[in-house]
Task: structure prediction
Amino acid sequence: MKKIFPETFLIGSSTAAYQVEGNNSNSDFWAEEYADGSPYRDKSGDAIDHYRRFREDIALMARLGLKAYRFSLEWARIEPAPGQYSRSAIEHYRDMLQACREHGLTPIVCLHHFSSPQWIMRDGGWAGAGMPERYANYCEFVFKELGELIPYALTFNEINLPTMLRDLFSKIGIVAPVGIDPASWSAPEWRASAARLCGTTPDNYVTFHMISDEKTIAILKEAHRKGRESIKRISPHTQVGWSMALSDIQAAPGGEAHAADKWRLLFEQFLDAMEGDDFFGLQNYTREVYGPEGQLRPEDGAELTQMNYEFYPEGLGHVLRKVAKALTIPIFVTEHGVATDDDNRRVEFIRQGLEGVRSCLMEGIDVRGYMHWSTFDNFEWNSGYAMTFGLIAVDRATQERMAKESAHYLGGIAQGGAL
Ligand code: BGC
Result:
């Protein structure tokens, strides 16, 4: 049978530690959940107990036919206090990497997926002096221990998300893809209470989601550079990059200037820090259309996802083409997914998304893999457990896993099947 994708093309799925592990009570998000006035719909609690169940979970991914697993490490577990590293946490992640190896899944490891240790807030959070060095020290520890097991590393997930959240979603009043809803973005009491729970004051409390001004973006870029340097020094074989959230930005007549501004703000302003990266992680969920007055709401009758943004799988191919014009390094799709309770729509979303990837490959664009978001229905930040992004459903009362049709579909394609 003729393969649809090259033999080396990696097809798999993604998770993030905070959304699946459970009980990350040393992380800043935990404080945000428990703070007075928190807009979080649910508490993450045990999440889907992936911290304990990872072996069965990885075995299930392999049985489904998937070839790669993108997951993240929880910094607050690995370094629970400044400079103090947890042997038990690092051994846990070693076991996860070994389980991937045993089951033939290529791991793509993200060192920071939104959540940070609470202790960094005592010193100015992401605006604090010395953050790039702190972050690089954490990377150094991880790679000294685990480097040989990690072929691909993302320093940060969605480096540009805070810029996108602040600038875009809050203005048009739809739910952001993650984390912060428009009302809570500026909720001072909630922030003050979360700061207290982290043992600090609001002026020191700067989470990853607040990195959207020139000063903090520069700190983040520097953290990426320094983290990458540490990783490459210790583990030269590891391919290093970061990921960005990129909607398919389109212009309706008269909206060209707005669309071009957005692209600069969300993509081009980050390019300088990517010099020296080995690959780029692209994450796409929908499109944004701009008119003369700014962003337009989806047209009446457009199909919306549970997140209230448009079901638009063809966006993936469009964004791949746009990004490829600016980059000379390989691209991995590190997230692409849809929140829906109709799994047939997820199958369709994957099918159309992968059609786009296939056309890009045929045009000669260097795409190396596709990681679907998400492996499981999981904790969708402020939307709690209401959003179902997973290939695999989870009964949270029993923690039983139930693979959906979309999981079999994607696994079949990973094994060389048709779209
Ligand atoms: C994030 C995930 C999130 C997903 C769906 C992405 O922006 O990386 O953490 O769950 O979108 O909203």
User: Anything to note?
Assistant: The two ends are 13 Å apart (CA to CA).
